[in-house]
Every structure is written in structure tokens, then in C-alpha cells.
Amino acid sequence: MTDPWVALEPGTDPAERVRTIRVAHERFTAAGTVERPVRSVVAESWRRSARARVSPEDTGAAVELTAGDLGAYRAEHPLSRVMPLFRELMGGFAKDGEHLLAVCDGHGRLLWVEGHPATRALAGRMNFVAGARWAESAMGTNAPGTAVAVDRPVQVFATEHFVRRVQPWTCAAAPVHDPRSGRVIGAVDITGGDGLAHPHSLAFVQAVARAAESHLALLAPPVADDGALELTALGRDEATLVVGGRKVRLSRRHSEIVVLLARHPEGLSGDELLCALYEDESVTPVTLRAELARLRQVLGPEVLRSRPYRLGAPVTSDVVTVERRLGCGAVTAAVSAYPGPLLPGSQAPAVARLRRRLTDQVRAALIARGDPDLLSDWVHAPWGEDDVEVWRALAAVRPTAPVVARLCALDDELAAEAVPRNGRRS
């Protein structure tokens, strides 16, 4: 297949593909093995779904927001500003083709589901409705949830869905990004019958998502060119830095350096930076100086200064935003500004310490607040799937069967890990 993100090659018999993938799905759910012709994106999604303890026999998604809560959440969400655009570009296509237009947030929770009335009624039987969580970690492989999970436009055809109740459907979705920070804020989806497996449907939703991002950029206030730096480093391995109104994407090592210098406006010596960045004591100061020279070429000498190494302008960052909101007790606002751990792939000792400290602060605030929606958002995010303490807090305020089952599974895993090979507990 030339494009692994497209479900069917030209000329493929849809009915035959449905049967073939159904056999592969049954083999995977029984034995955990998956082979061709299952696409790699689907196979990886099935594995993530299984790790998240999604049951192929689920009958429908959990509805987490209803009535006034749903209305208030939608009104505050940035995608509300482009819903008129979505309706203009996709509304007629959805109604005429007996499809659905769906929009989800960055956690895979559906905010709007619109389209053909009869199709909406059918989809409602599996709770494909506004307010329901269709994250991949909650409902397995599906276009909106998987698009958010992998940050790519994706098409899911019929029996490629992990949950059998969803397998009569085909869908295509594309993530939508915040034009300033670049983080995923949701996805736009088209859901219907097998006809949506055509490559055009994937290109269509991708074009709509890009149009939405362009519209959001036009609506965003202009960046003030006051010399201040704007750092975005949460939930991504490569940070972005707004310098003089232009956005620069940093390499992983440069991201670590800028994050550390932003935490130390007074500056750091070469030896301090070396210890903060490298676990390996054999790394020489020459290596660090080479990295700093490359970073200075990217940012300019007026931005990266030396003796000591420091940033030459005030810095605002998403890390500071989260810390400030936590400090004043605005937990909901803090969580909304936390798209994930700080530079999650970084192994730099000082970055890892900062990452753990911020994550622990957010977790502690969530547990103390006890808000079921905020707790649910955390445990259904990739970084919170195995967070037993937050699952326990969620079970205390929302003891649904899936929540209790997941908590029991995590407790069993912890108990098994506590038993050494001689069979005695530590």
C-alpha cells in the first residue's frame, strides 16, 4: 500500500477486506498476534487498546458531560470558534451522504456530533454522542481517538475498529493544532459507511483541519514584538520558542538547554549546564560548547548570551503558567494548560527532576480536588494510564464498572511485582 494511513487500496473489495480483517481481529483478541494485511497503524493501535484494557465487547462509550456541563465546556473550548467553519465545509457533505460530522477535544471526548438524523440515531446506540469519551484508551481504535493519540490524520475501516460494536462503521479524522503552541487541541471526524474508506475522505478531513488551524491563527491576538521569549515545552520532546514574533522549533538537546536556562534567568556556568544535561560524566565541555554554538546560530547572539550562559530576554513558558495556576488554586485552569509531561523523552538529570516535580504537583492537586472529569482526563491520557493513585481517586468519586475493573487490574499488577521469585512478598 502506498499510503499506510488510507484504509483501502484502489480496487480492493470492501466485503473481502472486512472478512479478512475480522479474522485478524479475532486472532489478535484471542492470542495477541497480528499479521498482514492489517495496516501497521491499526496493529499498533490494537496493541495500545489492549494495554489500556479496552474490551472488544464494550457496548458503548461512557458519557462524561451532559446538559449544562457540556454546554459550558464547549463554549470555552477553542474549537467552538471554528464550528461554523466545520459546518460550512462538512455539514452538507455529512447530511447528503448520510454521514456524521464529529469534533472531539484533545482527550478524545466528543464535543459535537451532527449530520444525518437517522445516522445519528444509529450512532447514538453506541453513545457516539456529544459528551462521550472516544479516546483510544477508552474505546479502542477509532478515527477521532486514534488521530488524537498519534497526531496524524487517520482512516479506520469497519473491522479495523477494536470494539466489535463499532465495526459496522468507517471513519476518517484529522487532528487540529493550536496555531501558537502546536499542541493538539482536538480532531475533526467524518463517520458513516464503507464508502468513507476512499482516500478522498482522508484528504478531505485533513484539508478541513488545516483550514481550521488557519482560521484560529487569524483569530489569535498578534504576538507582541517586545523582545520577550515564549517557550512551549509541555507534552512534546521538541520545544518551540517564539523569538521576535517568529516561532522556532528546537532540537531535543536545544530544548533541554532552553528549558534549563529559562529556569535560571541569572544564568548557569558551563560546568553547571554540563551536570544538568548529561548523566555520562565522560561528556566533555567541548561537546557542550558545540551545542551552545549551534543554538546561538539558531537564536542569535542577542538571545543566547554567555559568561554565564543565559537568555537575553524575559521568558514566559507553559511550565510557569501551570505552576502559577496551581499556586493560586486554579486546578481546572492548570490542568487545561498541561498537555503532558515536560520534554517526556528527555533523560537530562535536571530536566527529569523538573518534570517529576511538576507532574507530582499536578497529580496532588487533582487528587485533592476530587473532580471526576479532571481525574478521568488524567487517567485516560497516555501519561496517566497506569497512575494507580489517580485511578483510586477516580474510583472513589466515579465507581463505574470500567473504572473499578481498571483499578483492580493495576492493583493486581502491583501485587505481582511485589512478589519476588521465591514467592515471598517483599
Description:
The protein is α+β, with helices and mostly antiparallel strands. The protein has three domains: 14-219, 2-Layer Sandwich (Beta-Lactamase), CATH 3.30.450; 229-317, Winged helix-like DNA-binding domain superfamily/Winged helix DNA-binding domain (Arc Repressor Mutant, subunit A, Orthogonal Bundle), CATH 1.10.10; 319-417. 47% of the residues lie in helices and 12% in strands. It has helices at 14-31, 40-51, 67-76, 83-96, 117-124, 136-139, 143-150, 199-219, 252-263, 270-277, 285-299, 318-327, 331-336, 349-369, 372-379, 388-397, 401-417, and strands spanning 100-105, 110-115, 154-157, 170-177, 184-192, 229-232, 240-243, 246-249, 304-305, 310-311, 315-317. It has a five-stranded antiparallel β-sheet, sandwiched between helices. Helix 12 runs parallel beside helix 14 and helix 15 packs antiparallel against helix 16 (388-397). The longest helix is centred in the middle third of the chain and has 21 residues, at 199-219.
Topology:
Elements: H1 14-31, H2 40-51, H3 67-76, H4 83-96, E1 100-105, E2 110-115, H5 117-124, H6 136-139, H7 143-150, E3 154-157, E4 170-177, E5 184-192, H8 199-219, E6 229-232, E7 240-243, E8 246-249, H9 252-263, H10 270-277, H11 285-299, E9 304-305, E10 310-311, E11 315-317, H12 318-327, H13 331-336, H14 349-369, H15 372-379, H16 388-397, H17 401-417
Parallel strand pairs: 6-11
Antiparallel strand pairs: 1-2, 1-5, 3-4, 4-5, 6-7, 7-8, 9-10
Helix pairs in contact: 12-14, 15-16, 16-17
GO biological process, one term: phosphorelay signal transduction system
GO molecular function: DNA binding
InterPro entries: GAF, GAF-like_dom_sf, OmpR/PhoB-type_DNA-bd, WH-like_DNA-bd_sf
